[in-house]
Design goal:
Oligomer: single chain
Number of strands: 4
Strand order of the largest sheet: 1-2-4-3
Structural class: alpha/beta
Number of domains: 1
Radius of gyration: 15 Å
Distance between the termini: 31 Å
Largest sheet: 4 strands, mixed
Length: about 100
């Protein structure tokens, strides 16, 4: 008997707390793969209203180990460092996952 492979989905679209509709095709694809393999999914999303810099949630979504990381997004208009901050936080959020 062969051992299940561990498949990692890194996705930009996935159902989240603000909107359950984006990325349903990604979720359905992951569910199909999870029927035969071990699946982990990492979803990183900016959250303008976040209190903490990073918030990590974990759940078992019908056999998909799902990690969602929400990160605070700088929203001050005219901030010359806002784009760099967004990029750095996006990368750090992926490393946390």
């Amino acid at each position: 008997m062969s051992q299940k492979r561990h498949i990692l989905f890194l996705t930009r679209w996935y159902p989240n707390r603000r909107d359950p509709m984006p990325g349903l095709f990604v979720r359905n694809h992951a569910l199909a793969v999870a029927a035969n393999e071990q699946v982990t999914l990492l979803y990183v999303q900016p959250e303008p209203d976040a209190v903490k810099r990073y918030e990590i949630t974990e759940e078992d979504d019908q056999g998909i180990y799902t990690v969602r990381i929400y990160y605070r997004n700088p929203t001050k208009a005219g901030n010359p460092f806002a784009m760099a901050t967004k990029i750095v936080r996006f990368i750090i959020a992926h490393k946390k996952g």
